[in-house]
Amino acid sequence: MIIRSTYPGITVPDSTLPEFLSGSVPAEVAGRPAVIDTTTGREYSYAALAEAVERVASAVTRRGLGPGDVAALVTPNRGEYPALFHGVLRAGAVVSPVNPLYTAHEMAHQFRDAGVRLVFTTPSELDRVRAAAGTDVREIVVLGDDGPDGATAFTDFLAGPLIPPVAPVSGGDLAALPYSSGTTGLPKGVELTHRNLVANLLQLHPVHRVRTGSRVLAVLPFFHIYGLNSIMNLTLHSRGTLVTMARFDLAGFLRALQDHRIDHVFIAPPIALALAKSPLVDDYDLSALEMVISAAAPLDGELATALGRRLNTTVAQGYGMTEAGPATHGIPADRPDIDRGSIGVVLPGVEARVVDPRGGADTPPGQPGELWVRGPNIMRGYLGNPEATAATVDADGFLHTGDLVTVDDGGVFHVVDRLKELIKYKGYQVAPAELEAVLLTHEGIADAAVIGVPDRDGEEVPKAFVTRRDTHPGLGASEVIEFVAARGAPQEGPRRRVRRRDPQVPGREDPAQGPAGPGRTAGRRPAGPLSARPPRPPAAGHFGN
């Protein structure tokens, strides 16, 4: 059975993404701030952003790049990011966003595979970019006024006359080339067209309700499709103000929420956990906050409810994949009746099926099955990899997500787990994500992950790894097991198999940049709302993937 949205359908214009975003800026909006950079304090009005896009497009065109050519953005979130992204697209070329925390080896793989010819970066990434750049990379542009030896300063890059793009581009042409491992394997280039990205922006509006004048904090990285389309582009299309942060730290995050009177913020579950439990939150005025949207991994319903009460705001969750541009599901802003632990309903224009992976038949309501999705936001394919494309998108256009879900009679979806991550215990199916969500509600547990391990009888049983908070130094395995049992967790919960990690999981300080967050273990990709995967182990994640 195909499940469709109850919202009206969408009509996707045959325009490029820059045309879609800039074609309807009214005069009264031109002077309003489009982007504010919290690192530098610089502000860019909508008029200034439009001018910067044209200047970048002209500079790219003067260098002979156009349709089919690829430029890489290797930078944390900055005020210049929207101008770079849309300037390259305006010239007809393609953007491949790259994780700035990548090693030179990881960057080199993406540069080679994508055929990158131009790279934009910052001084802190320059040495690794240089080491990664092959013969195809013609020029490295460093953001700032000074260009180190062998690189071009951004101001020098822009110098020159304004000229129009050489070749026309349509909605069906390639726009973005983020990298994702999909459901399996090494990272692959995901071919997202202008039409894919435009469609997803139209699909998102009933869920997030970002509007003209909204102030949106962007701490999740733009190199993920979640940050790129569902935060950056959505805010600009809605004529809101995008407030950028280069990286996450809790005090700076709270200060930005307060000082910029943020009304919408997009986060990942580790940030939700910090907001729900840290005493720092009480030191800041967050009264302007209207909505918190969580994605990138499963958010427990109890945690979401507790966070909403603490901040006196609406907390919602969404789901998607890089291959879906990214969003396919979400909890609408006007649906307080929907369970906060769910991923909500299908977005406008999205069709979904819940399919038994053993036989290919649709499962009845309430029974788990693999989620398949179809719509105008689904990728064109994996770059140069028709086999992987055919294994992920079937002949009918359905993207096989690899996530197990249930759907109720009201069309509300819950993620159960990844298809290949279920633990089989005495015939029972145990979902690691469910147990992890229960563990994270314990006030003494900072982080948790569950895996399957063999017992003495050869049966697979769950084993939990937990990180204790400093406030609970005496937390032991027996207490954790009793806590899970008392919360009504499945009988196949952790059985005398709990390992503590002290004091913190490495990398946990920066949840926005892909830490070892809830439900994340090396080599295992969590099922997750609004999936876009932080590509660096052990931070495999989900909102695009």
Automatic annotation (TrEMBL):
**SUPFAM superfamilies in the record:** Acetyl-CoA synthetase-like (SSF56801)
Composition-biased stretches (Low complexity): 512-531
> What's a Pfam family this protein contains?
AMP-binding_C
Keyword field: Ligase
Enumerate the Gene3D superfamilies for this protein: 3.30.300.30, N-terminal domain of ligase-like
AMP-dependent synthetase/ligase domain location, by residue?
30-383
Q: Where is the signal peptide?
A: none
One GO MF term on file is: ligase activity
Q: Where is this region: Disordered?
A: 486-545
Q: Where is the composition biased (Basic and acidic residues)?
A: 501-511
Q: Which domain of life is it from?
A: Bacteria
Keyword Ligase applies: yes
Domain (AMP-binding enzyme C-terminal): residue spans on this chain: 434-499
Protein family membership: Belongs to the ATP-dependent AMP-binding enzyme family.
Q: Which PANTHER family match?
A: AMP-BINDING DOMAIN-CONTAINING PROTEIN-RELATED, LONG-CHAIN-FATTY-ACID--COA LIGASE
Spell out the protein name for this chain.
Answer: Acyl-CoA synthetase (AMP-forming)/AMP-acid ligase II
